[in-house]
Amino acid sequence: MNPGHSAQAVANGPPPTGEPVPGYVLELERLASYLPREQLPLLREAWQMGAAAHAGQTRKSGEPYITHPMAVAGVLAELGLDVESLIAAILHDTIEDTPLTRQDIATRFGEDVADLVDGVTKLDKLKFRDRQEAAAESFRKMLLAMSRDLRVIMIKLADRLHNMRTLGAQSGEARGRIARETLEIYAPIAQRLGMSLVKSELQNLGFRALYPWRHAILEKHIRSQPVVRRESMVQVEVKLSQGLAREGLEHRLVSRIKTPWSIYNKMQGEGKSFDQVMDVFGFRVVVRSVPDCYRALGAVHAQFKPLDGRFRDFIAIPKANGYQSLHTVLFGPYGSPIEVQIRTEEMDLIAERGIAAHWTYKHGGESPNSAQSRAHAWIVDLIDSQRAAGSSLEFLENVKVDLFPDEVYLFTPKGRILSLPRSSTALDFAYAVHTDVGNQAVAARVDKKLVPLKTKLASGQTVEIIAAKSAAPKPQWLEFVVTSKARTAIRHQLKQLEHEDAVQLGHRMLDRALEAMGSSLEKLPAQRLESFLAEHRFPRLEAFLAEVALGNWMPSQAAQALMAYAELRGGRGRSGRLQEKILINGTEGGVVSFANCCQPIPGDEIMGYHTAGKGVVLHRLDCSNLAEFRKSPERWVPIDWDPNVAGDYDTSLIVDVENHTGVLAQLAAALAQSQSNIERVDYLDRDMNAAQLRFAIQVRDRTHLADVIRRLRRLNVVQGVRRQ
Predict the structure, then answer these.
(1) How many structural domains compose the chain?
(2) pLDDT, mean of residues 446-471
(3) What residues make up the domain containing 417?
(4) Of 179, 210, 241, which residue constitutes the final position of a domain?
(5) What percent of the chain stands above pLDDT 70?
(6) Angle CA(159)–CA(483)–CA(393) in degrees, nearest 5?
(7) DSSP code, position 425
(8) Which end of the chain is more exposed for a tag (fewer CB within 10 A), N or C?
(9) Is residue 167 situated within a structural domain?
(10) Residues 561 and 500 in one domain
(11) φ and ψ at 502, to 5 degrees?
C-alpha cells in the first residue's frame, strides 16, 4: 500500500450517477489534451473503474483515495506520456488494494495496461522478514518490470512524487523513512534517467521532510536575496544577451534558480558558506542547432573571460543519462563566477524530462531517443547484476552505489568510450569491459603507464587491462570497487571459490575422521550415502562436505552418522588411532582463517579450531587463548603446514626504539630490504627518549620472520624486538 494510503478495500460500486464530474477528472483531461480525441474517453472509463474499485477508501488526509492515482496520472500527462501510461497510473493501486484483478484490467484495457499495473504493484509484505526486505524485493521486481517496459518506472516516479507532495498527513517516523528512501533511491533514479524536473522536486520535497528547519532557513535566505545581487544578475543577463544577439543567434536566455537542496548539498559537499554558494550566477542559453551551441560559446567567452579548466563538452561526450550541454564558467564583472549551460531546444527537453521526452512508445516507428536507449542499457546491466546478487537487500545496496550523480568518461585502447561513476577504479573499468576480464585482472595501463587495479580514474584517460588466466578475485577488491557490476561479480566469484575450497577441505577432514574409524567415503555403499544426503536435505555430496568444512557438522560427528547409516559401526575400525593431520597449503580461501590473537605463520606449531559457519580457525600452540578452547576438544582439528605452503601471512612485531627524528624511516627501510610488506604502524608508548611501536607486517614463514627481526636488531636505534 502506498504511503499516504490508509483505508481497507470495500465492496465495489460505481460512483453515484447524476453527480457532476469531479474537478480532478476535468483537470486530467485538460492536461492530456495532447492525446488524439478518440483516446480521451478511455481516461474517464479508467477513472470510473478505479473509483468503483477504491469506493469507500480514503487517504490519511481524508480525501477519497481515487484522487491519488488521478493526480499520478496528471503528473505523467504533464510529461506528455501515452494513454496506456495514464490509464495504468489511474489503476496502479487496484490490484494490490482492491478486489479488482489483473484479468479485469486486461479484459477492458488490454494486456499492455495490465502489465504496467502489475509491474508497479508492490509485493505482499507478509512474505518477508521486515519492511526493509519487503521494500528491497519490491524494488527488484519493479526493475525486472522496467526492463520489459520503461513506463513502469515513469508511473512509479510519478506515484512517489505525488506521495511526497502530500507527505504531511503521515506520522513523523513514516515521513523520515519515506523521505530518506526518496533521496537515496528515487531521486537518483530520476537523475539517472535524465528527468531533471522530477529529480529536483523529489530532492527538495525529501529535504524538506527530512530536515524541515534547515529547508525553511535556506528558503527564507533565498527569498530575501539582497537587491544589489538581483540587480547584478540583470546586468550580467543583459550583457550575455547582447553578445549572443550580435552573433545573430536566435536564443532563449534564462537564469537558473538555486533550490534549497542544491545549496545545502554544495555547502555540505564543498564546505562552503551560504554566501559563497549564492555568490554564483547561473544561466542557461538555449539555441536552435548544435553548431549554434559552439557559436554561442564563443559569444559568451567574448563577453566574460572563461575560468581555466572549467569547460566541459557534454555534447560530444553525453552523460550516461543522455544529458547534453556545453558547460563553461566565466569571470563575472563583480568578482563572482558565472555558470553557463548552452544547449539546443531538444537537449533542453531531454535534460528536463529525460526518458519522458518525445515519448515514442508505439507512435509511428520512430526509434527511441538517446535517453531511452541509455536507460534501457543501464537497466539491462542492473538485471544482469541482480541475477548474481545474494539477496534483495544486497542488490538494493549495489543499486544505491551505482546511482552516482557524476560520471567519468574513459577510452579503451581501440577508442570505445565507457562511462563509469565518479571515483571508479581500473578494476571497475575491467568489469565494465567484461566480467571475465575483471575476474582475471592483475594490473592496468592508464595512458600507457602501469598502475595497480585500485587506481582511481579521471575523464579522458585510456585504460588497458592486463589479465592472467590464473588470476582470481580477492576479498580486498570489495574495499575499493565503486560500481555495482564489479561488486556483484566479485562477490559471486568469491562465493564460488569459497564453496570449492570448502568442498575440498571438507573432503579431507571427513576422510581423516572415517579413516580413524577404519572406513572411507569410497567404502560407504552408494545407495546408503544417497539416502543419508536425501534425509538430511543435501542436494549433493559436495553440499554436505562444505557444511563439514564450515563447522556446521563436526568431522567425527559426520563420520559417526555416516557409519551408523551405512550399518558399518563396530566393524574392524581403528577408532583408537589418532587422526592424521590435515595439511594446509595457503590456498584454502575463506574456509581456513588465521586467528588474530596469535597470528600463526608457516613454521609455527598449530592446531585448528572448528567454528560453526566460519570453518577452521588456526591458532599457534603457544596461543594464550588455548586453555579456553581446550574445553571443547571435539572442535579441535589436527592440522599442519604443507611443505609447499606459499603466500604472505600477517604477523605483528613490537619494537622498542630511541625516540629520534627519522627513526620510523630507518625501520621502514629495514623492513623493505627484508622484502616484508608493512600493513600498519601504531605507537603503543612514547616519551622524550624512547618509543614502543607495533608493526603489522606480512612474511612468508618463520625463517623470513627471523630475517626481518635480525635486520631490525642491527639498527643502533633499536633496543628490542619481539613477536606479539
Answers:
(1) 5
(2) 83
(3) 406-473
(4) 210
(5) 78
(6) 55
(7) B
(8) C
(9) yes
(10) yes
(11) -65, -40
Question: Would you say residue 4 lies in a domain?
Answer: no
CA distances from 18 to 15, 23, 142, 370 (A): 9, 15, 39, 48
Active site residues: 96-97
Backbone angles phi, psi at 359, to 5 degrees: -55, 120
> What contacts 144, CB < 8 A, 6 or more positions away?
383, 386
Rg over alpha carbons for the chain, rounded to the nearest Å, is: 33
In degrees, rounded to 5, the angle at the alpha carbon of residue 201 between the alpha carbons of residues 200 and 205 is 120
Q: Cα(first)–Cα(last) distance of the chain, in Å?
A: 58
**Are residue 162 and residue 194 in the same domain, yes or no?**
yes
pLDDT digit string, tens, across residues 23-63: 889 999 999 888 888 888 999 999 999 999 988 888 877 88
268 and 331 in a single domain? The answer is yes
CATH number of the domain to which 318 belongs = 3.30.460.10
Is 338 part of a structural domain of the chain? yes
Task: Write out pLDDT tens, residues 374-399.
Answer: 666 666 666 565 555 555 565 555 55
Within-domain flag for 579: yes
* Alpha carbon of residue 283 to chain centroid: 33
Rounded Cα distance, 448 and 443, in Å = 12
The residue among 460 and 91 whose pLDDT is bigger is: 91
690 and 584 in a single domain? The answer is: no
Report residue 88 as a C-alpha cell.
Answer: 495504468
Per-residue pLDDT at 505: 72
Q: How far apart are CA 233 and CA 326, in angstroms?
A: 21
301 with 158, same domain? no
pTM confidence score: 0.55
CA-to-CA distance for 277 and 264, rounded, in angstroms? 9
pLDDT in tens, 652-675: 999 998 887 778 878 887 887 888
pLDDT over 50 at 690, yes or no: yes
Average pLDDT, stretch 695-718?
89
- DSSP one-letter code for 269: H
In a 13 Å sphere around the CA of 395, the CA atoms on its Cβ side amount to: 24
| Residue 387 to residue 408: CA distance in whole angstroms | 26
Taking a C-beta distance cutoff of 8 angstroms, is the pair 162, 69 a contact? Answer: no
Q: What is the mean pLDDT of the chain?
A: 78
